[in-house]
Amino acid sequence: MSEWLHMGGYALYVWGAIGAALLLPVCESVALRLRRRAALEQLKHQQDHDET
């Protein structure tokens, strides 16, 4: 098991790539959710402003 985790000396590269592949989509979905929320708030404020 230890040999498998060390990946023949390339563990840092392999595990770093796996970590990035898992982390980046999570970060992108969080950023997308925040941008969507901000856009909806801006639209709501604009509609409130237009009604007055």
UniProtKB/TrEMBL annotation:
The chain crosses the membrane at residues 12-34. The keyword Transmembrane helix applies. It is a single-pass membrane protein. It is found in: Cell inner membrane. Pfam families: CcmD (PF04995). InterPro entries: Haem_export_protD_CcmD. Keywords: Cell inner membrane, Cell membrane, Cytochrome c-type biogenesis, Membrane, Transmembrane, Transmembrane helix, Transport. One of its GO terms (biological process) is cytochrome complex assembly. One of its GO terms (cellular component) is plasma membrane. The keyword Membrane applies. NCBIfam families: cytochro_ccmD. Belongs to the CcmD/CycX/HelD family. This is Heme exporter protein D. It comes from Duganella radicis. The gene is ccmD.
